[in-house]
Amino acid sequence: MVELRDVHMQFEDKKVLDGVSLKVEPQERLVVMGQTGSGKSTILRLILGTLRPASGSIFFKQFEITRLQRRKLQQVRRSMGMVYQYSALLSSRNVRDNVALPLEELTDKSREEIDQIVDEKLDLVGMKHAKELLPSELSGGMRKRVSLARALVLEPELILFDEPSAGLDPVIGSVIDELIISLTEKSKVTSITVTHEMDSAFRIATRMAMLYQGKIIEEAEPEQFKQSENPVVAQFLSGSTEGPILEGSRDAITTK
Ligand SMILES: Nc1ncnc2c1ncn2[C@@H]1O[C@H](COP(=O)(O)OP(=O)(O)O)[C@@H](O)[C@H]1O
Ligand SMILES: [Mg+2]
């Protein structure tokens, strides 16, 4: 479904990804973990094609994202849904109009068809009662649900979740994780979630990968991942202050 091959990325002189390779099979829920600033959101933006890598290639189904012309890229991107870290809803539009937006902009469906799809997706995330509310009238968890409904309206084959439980209290965070699992299973959609939250990662993942200093240093199913002998993974899992991860380490990839 998705493949990254030896992807390098830097912003000005700051190296962020230093040869990332990853493969995601259909209907997997891959969770990529890493410290804040390690390049997790960058990976999602590269897959969406809103960023281009310095080198390496990225595939989505049969398309090489990194080679597509703008028009074709926009078309291919309709098969991907993105749930942003801070939900990214338009503050002037109510819930219904936020969810309808991709359908209005990218399809020629009638008002009736759009209403029906919006209702169906809002129902899936348990937000049908809140159609008329503005984003400012919603809690963080509700905003996340709406953002999830919006990501589903074009029936994507792949959904990308950027820190889905960030900023939510632990209980609401777990509820959102459960929703991610049930929705992706029901719609047979493949997902990539990036997070620095361990509990959330272990709930969601069918496979896990750890990003550290620009590279994937471990990749395994959750049970094996837990047993990892890599000291960085072990420290990340335990949240210990003892180990190779230093406070400043996210700011630079050590040059050998
Ligand atoms: N557009 C940008 N311009 C310059 N630096 C950026 C840009 N986007 C991200 N970065 C830097 O790249 C690093 C990785 O960012 P990001 O992918 O957002 O990390 P994460 O999502 O893991 O917290 C950070 O140090 C960030 O400051
Ligand atoms: Mg991020």
Helical segment tally? 9
Q: Radius of gyration from the CA trace?
A: 18 Å
* Strand residue content: 15-25%
Q: Mean pLDDT score, rounded? A: 93
Shape: globular
How many runs of DSSP E, i.e. beta strands? 10
Structural class: alpha/beta
Kindly report how far apart the N and C termini lie.
Answer: 34 Å
Order of helices and strands: EEEHEEHEHHHEHEHEEHH
Helix content: 25-40%
Instruction: For the largest sheet, list the strands in their spatial order.
Output: 6-7-8-3-9-10
Low-confidence stretches: none
Q: Report the biggest beta sheet as strand number plus sense, adding barrel if it closes.
A: 6 strands, mixed
Bound compounds, each kind once, are: adenosine-5'-diphosphate, magnesium ion
Compact summary:
The chain has helices spanning 40-48, 70-77, 95-106, 111-124, 140-152, 170-186, 198-204, 222-226, 231-238, and strands spanning 2-11, 14-24, 29-33, 55-60, 63-64, 80-83, 158-162, 190-195, 207-212, 215-220. With 256 residues, it is α/β, with parallel strands linked by helices. It has a 6-stranded mixed sheet, sandwiched between helices. The protein has a 4-stranded antiparallel sheet with strand order 2-1-4-5, with helices on one face.
